[in-house]
C-alpha cells in the first residue's frame, strides 16, 4: 500500500480494535476479525509507517486525584514555534498545538502537584519573552475523550466484533489511587510504547514477570491506565481540525456536553473553567463541513450563547513528542 493511500475496511477495524484494547494480542484480534495473525501483524506494521500509528499508555488524572489544565498562550508570531516546541518537551504536557493565525499555542497540562502547576502558570510562562497573554482553564468534567477516542465512533467493527474485543469494565472509583515507584517505572515505559512486551517491561523496570502482570492488571482495572491510538488524522479524511470554545448557560451545561459527546466529529469535549465553559475539539473533511457543523449542529443546541472557533494549524504534540522532521539545507 502506498503512503497516503486511503485506509481500507480491515485497516479501520484494526485501528478500532486497538482503541478498544491497545494491548490486545494480534492472535485475538485476528480470530475476531477472521484473518490470520500474520495479516494483522503486517497491517499493523504498515499502519506504523503510513499512518504513524502508535499505541501509548495514558494515565487518567482523575483516578489519581489530580486535575488537568488547558492553557492558551498568545505570543508574537516569531515566538510560536519555539514556545510550542518547549512545551512539547515537558513531561507534564500531553497535547500541544499551533492555532489560528500562528500566534496562539494551546497545551493540555497534567501537573503532578500544585507546586508544579504554579511554577509553570505563575512563574515560567509569565516571564517567557514575547508571550503576550496566558489563560488557564481547569478541566472540571470530561464528556468525551480519555479512554474514549474518535476511533470508538468509527463503526468499523460489527457489534459482535466490538463486544469480543472490548476489555473488562473498569471498577467504579472509590477514591484516588496511590502509585508507588514500581508503578511509576512501569507507566514511564508504557507512555512511550503501550504494546511493549512483558519481557521489555521486565528489562526496563527490573521487575519480575509476575509482578509486571499484577501491576498491569491493577493499573488497568482501577482505570488509572488506558491506551490511546495516535495516528495521522488526514488518512481518515480529517483535513480540518478546530477547537470550539462554547459559552453555555449553566443550566444547559450537562445537556450540551452530552450531546457533543454523541457527535461523530467530536474526539474531545469537557466542561472547563472560564467564561467559555465548554471546550470541544472537532474534526472535519473541509472548511465547508466545519461551517455546516457550526450552523446546523452547534447552532441548534439550546443554551449555547456564543462560540469561538480556532483552527488547529498543526499538532506539535499528541501524547508524546516527536521533533518535527525538516529537510536538509
UniProtKB/TrEMBL annotation:
Cellular component aspect of the GO annotation: cytosol
Presence of the UniProt keyword Transcription regulation in the record: yes
Record-linked InterPro entries: AsnC-type_HTH_dom (IPR000485), Dimeric_a/b-barrel (IPR011008), Tscrpt_reg_AsnC-like (IPR019888), Tscrpt_reg_AsnC/Lrp_C (IPR019887), WH-like_DNA-bd_sf (IPR036388), WH_DNA-bd_sf (IPR036390)
Transmembrane segments: none
Gene Ontology process terms (BP): response to amino acid
Gene3D superfamilies on file: 3.30.70.920, Winged helix-like DNA-binding domain superfamily/Winged helix DNA-binding domain
Domain HTH asnC-type: 7-67
GO terms for MF: sequence-specific DNA binding
Keywords recorded for this protein, A-Z: DNA-binding, Transcription, Transcription regulation
Keyword Transcription among record annotations: yes
Stored PANTHER family: LEUCINE-RESPONSIVE REGULATORY PROTEIN, TRANSCRIPTIONAL REGULATOR AZLB
Name the UniProt record assigns to this protein: DNA-binding Lrp family transcriptional regulator
Organism in which the protein naturally occurs: Streptomyces violarus
Amino acid at each position: 500500500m502506498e503512503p497516503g493511500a486511503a485506509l481500507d475496511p480491515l485497516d479501520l477495524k484494526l485501528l478500532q480494535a486497538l482503541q478498544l484494547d491497545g494491548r490486545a494480542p494480534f492472535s485475538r484480534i485476528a480470530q475476531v476479525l477472521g484473518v490470520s495473525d500474520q495479516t494483522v501483524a503486517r497491517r499493523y506494521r504498515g499502519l506504523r509507517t503510513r499512518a504513524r500509528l502508535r499505541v501509548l499508555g495514558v494515565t487518567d488524572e482523575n483516578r489519581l486525584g489530580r486535575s488537568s489544565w488547558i492553557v492558551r498562550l498568545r505570543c508574537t508570531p516569531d515566538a510560536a514555534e519555539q514556545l510550542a516546541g518547549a512545551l512539547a518537551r515537558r513531561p507534564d504536557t500531553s497535547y500541544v498545538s499551533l492555532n489560528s493565525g500562528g500566534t496562539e499555542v494551546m497545551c493540555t497540562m497534567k501537573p503532578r502537584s500544585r507546586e508544579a502547576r504554579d511554577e509553570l502558570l505563575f512563574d515560567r510562562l509569565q516571564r517567557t519573552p514575547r508571550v503576550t497573554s496566558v489563560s488557564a482553564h481547569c478541566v472540571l468534567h470530561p464528556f468525551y475523550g480519555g479512554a474514549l477516542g474518535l476511533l470508538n465512533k468509527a463503526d468499523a467493527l460489527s457489534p459482535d466484533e466490538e463486544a469480543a474485543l472490548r476489555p473488562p469494565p473498569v471498577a467504579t472509583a472509590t477514591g484516588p489511587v496511590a502509585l508507588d515507584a514500581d508503578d511509576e517505572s512501569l507507566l514511564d515505559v508504557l507512555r512511550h510504547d503501550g504494546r511493549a512486551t512483558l519481557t521489555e517491561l521486565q528489562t526496563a523496570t527490573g521487575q519480575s514477570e509476575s509482578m509486571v502482570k499484577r501491576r498491569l492488571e491493577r493499573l488497568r482495572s482501577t482505570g488509572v491506565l488506558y491506551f490511546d491510538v495516535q495516528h495521522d488524522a488526514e488518512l481518515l479524511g480529517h483535513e480540518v481540525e478546530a477547537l470550539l470554545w462554547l459559552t453555555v448557560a449553566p443550566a444547559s451545561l450537562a445537556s450540551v456536553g452530552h450531546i457533543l459527546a454523541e457527535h461523530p466529529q467530536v474526539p474531545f469535549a469537557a466542561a472547563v473553567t472560564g467564561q467559555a465553559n465548554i471546550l470541544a475539539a472537532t474534526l472535519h473533511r473541509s472548511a465547508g463541513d466545519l461551517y455546516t457543523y457550526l450552523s446546523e449542529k452547534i447552532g441548534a443546541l439550546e443554551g449555547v450563547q456564543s462560540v469561538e472557533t480556532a483552527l488547529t494549524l498543526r499538532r506539535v504534540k499528541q501524547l508524546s513528542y516527536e521533533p518535527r522532521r525538516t529537510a536538509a539545507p
